[in-house]
Amino acid sequence: RRRAPARRFSYHYPYLHCALMADLPPHLQETPSLRLYGDGEVQLWDPAEHAKMCGNAAFKAGDFEAALHHFTRAIEAGGDNQVLRSNRSACHSQLGQHKQALRDAEEAVRMAPRWPKGYCRKAAALFYLQQYDDAEEAYWSALRLSPNDDLIRQALEDVQREKSSSSKRALVNKVCKDMYTPAAATSRSQTMQLDGQGLTDADVE
């Protein structure tokens, strides 16, 4: 009996469905997640792979909450691996959930310690948590695994610049705080009195 015409492939379609082989991305045309029918029709039957595809499409569309949902579904469906953890870490980062992003990135590193992207995700989360020393070390780990990657090198330089600026801001804040503590104000006043000097309105900055 002739099958009904296959529906066009849609990344956002929420259930398993039929598609034409020509509509699938090249990397999926040879995956074991496909069930073949006649006339070039296929059905994507692996729920983890389907959820991952939906997550990728949602992420590219800027719908990070939906992408987070789909990547979580993919992990729960048994497809847990470093790529899904990395993808979910990116979603958390885009949503400002940097502690959760760090947890997923660390899990990606644990699963694939020779994969540079896991360290990059970890470094990005640490950067937004203002843990610059750890972020710098994570980028160094990524760069050692991929020494010719200019993007990693640029990210490392950005962290180093922010780390330097942060140190300078911390020093300025400390100096300002010390200058205006009660003890420092009393000492300053006593010094001015000993020098025979006093503050006037013209001296106030």
Short description:
It contains 8 helices and 3 strands; from the N terminus they run βββαααααααα. The chain has 205 residues and is mainly α. A hairpin with a 4-residue loop joins strand 2 and strand 3 (41-44).
Strand order of the largest sheet: 1-3-2
Q: What series of H and E elements makes up the topology? A: EEEHHHHHHHH
Low-confidence stretches: 1-21, 187-205
By DSSP, the count of extended strands is: 3
In DSSP terms (H or I, runs of 4 or more residues), the helix count works out at 8
The percent range for strand residues is under 5%
| Terminus-to-terminus distance | 90 Å
Question: Mean pLDDT, rounded to whole units?
Answer: 75
Helix fraction bin: 55-70%
Secondary-structure-based class equals: mainly alpha
- What is the global morphology? globular
**Quick one: biggest sheet?**
3 strands, antiparallel
Radius of gyration: 28 Å
